[in-house]
Structures are given as structure tokens and as C-alpha cells.
């Protein structure tokens, strides 16, 4: 896996990340840090990546278990250290999963498997942050 990040010098603190798969992600900083607030902060993209990684796992696990899953949303709330490096120190992930006849136990198991075995992003964040999860199952 590879990525190249370019500073866009004439745009304050904007950064363009070109991924190895050929996609571009724009990031920016807060105005008080020289940014223009035109894109997510780098740490926000890290948080979004963790949410995407674990949601991917949960949906895949449920589908492989032949469950009728039709939606998955993860609401993430992170806290950061007050001093540099301002790593994540706490992360709560609230999963809202919808489908037809989804057993809560199956969704909880999928979330646990993602957290404990499959999600590389949360595994890395878990070295500095206490991670908690909660599950809400909705009938589609």
C-alpha cells in the first residue's frame, strides 16, 4: 500500500493525498493553524478510515452469515490527548445496522469480530485509545 501527499503551497495548509489505488483525498487545517477549513483535517480522515474499515467488516461478516443486512452506519466520537502528539485516547463507535430479521447477537458478534480480529485501523488506534462499541439494530 502506498500514498503520496502533496502540500498545495498556494492554498494555505491544504494537502492532496494520492492513493496507490489512484484516488485523491483533500485535507486542510483549521484557520488558526494556517488552513482554510476547505476539507477534513488529517485526523478526521484517520477517524473516517477507522469507521469505514470496521463498517466494511461488519457488513461482510453479516452477509457471509446469510443475514439480510441493508444498512450500516457507524457514529464515531473520539477524544484526543491534550499534548503533542495528540493521539486518540478514547474512541466510541455506535453501530446502527438495519436489515430484515437481524438478530442483535449476530450484529454484536460481527462488531466484536471486526474489533478483535479484522479491522486494522481500529487495531492501530487501540494502542493509544480505549475503544468502546455499542449496537443498535433496526428492522428494514
TrEMBL record:
Gene3D superfamilies: 2.20.25.10, 3.30.300.20. This is OsmC family protein. It comes from Ideonella lacteola. It holds the Pfam family OsmC. InterPro entries: KH_dom-like_a/b, OsmC/Ohr_fam, OsmC/Ohrsf. Transmembrane segments: none annotated.
Amino acid at each position: 500500500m502506498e500514498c503520496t501527499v502533496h502540500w498545495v503551497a498556494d492554498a494555505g495548509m491544504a494537502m492532496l493525498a494520492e492513493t496507490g489505488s489512484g484516488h485523491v483525498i483533500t485535507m486542510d487545517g483549521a484557520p488558526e493553524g494556517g488552513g482554510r477549513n476547505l476539507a477534513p483535517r488529517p485526523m478526521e480522515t484517520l477517524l473516517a478510515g477507522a469507521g469505514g474499515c470496521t463498517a466494511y467488516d461488519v457488513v461482510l461478516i453479516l452477509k457471509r452469515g446469510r443475514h439480510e443486512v441493508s444498512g450500516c452506519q457507524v457514529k464515531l466520537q473520539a477524544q484526543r490527548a491534550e499534548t503533542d502528539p495528540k493521539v486518540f485516547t478514547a474512541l466510541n463507535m455506535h453501530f446502527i445496522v438495519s436489515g430484515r430479521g437481524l438478530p442483535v447477537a449476530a450484529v454484536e458478534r460481527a462488531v466484536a469480530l471486526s474489533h478483535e480480529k479484522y479491522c486494522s485501523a481500529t487495531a492501530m488506534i487501540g494502542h493509544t485509545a480505549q475503544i468502546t462499541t455499542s449496537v443498535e439494530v433496526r428492522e428494514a
